[in-house]
Amino acid sequence: SQNYPNPFNSETRFIHTLNKPDYVSLKIYNIMGELIHTVFEGNRGPGIHRDKWRGVDYENQPVSSGVYFYNLNSGGKSITKKMILSK
Known about the structure:
mainly beta, four-stranded antiparallel beta sheet, two-stranded antiparallel sheet
């Protein structure tokens, strides 16, 4: 599902459901398509999973306001959605 809230200020949350164990990756990209943060990458069991991103890069430094994209890969499927960080 879409991240919530969107637009967001300090943090945003992601919820996804797995029907069976699977490898999952949730990554954040800037408007230039550059990977700036990996929220989660690894194996997960079935069920509802919740993650959050605090608007930081790999060095835990705050990123600027603007448009970002998140990409969720799981079960051979990939979705990419837009989100807006507004400080």
